[in-house]
Amino acid sequence: MMPSSSEMLFILAVFILFFGIERLPKLARSLGMAKGEFQKGIADSRTITEDDLDRGGKTESAELVEKADEAGVDVEGKTTDEVKSELEDE
Fold first, then answer.
1. What's the start-to-end Cα distance of the chain, in Å?
2. How far apart are CA 19 and CA 50, in angstroms?
3. pLDDT by residue for the chain (90 residues), tens digit each?
4. Is the separation of the CB atoms in 82 and 61 below 8 Å?
5. From the DSSP assignment, how many helices (H) and strands (E) are in the chain?
């Protein structure tokens, strides 16, 4: 249920009474930034989850380590690019 305009004005008046008018822009800015960060996090998590599901529920690095183990390639201390190039060489 959405508050009516008179209820919103009352809430705004109480806020101004308790905290002062100078904090209102700071609060609005903080809420906007928090909303943006939240939406960015949601978008990132959806992308990662969909990609992982396409790989059978594994992350890219977990799948690479599994392939390297099957091929007998040591992954200790190597970057993903180094492991990929060794897998391609075999």
1. 63
2. 44
3. 777 999 989 988 888 888 888 888 888 899 999 999 999 988 877 766 676 677 777 777 888 888 888 888 888 888 888 888 888 887
4. no
5. 4, 0
Rounded Cα distance between 49 and 67, Å, is 21
Give per-residue burial for 44-78: e unless 16+ CB within 10 Å, then b: eeeeeeeeeeeeeeeeeeeebbeebeeeebebeee
Q: What is the pTM of this model?
A: 0.41
**How do the domains of the chain map onto residue ranges?**
1-57, 58-90
CB atoms within 10 A of CB 83: 19
Q: How far apart are CA 27 and CA 18, in angstroms?
A: 14
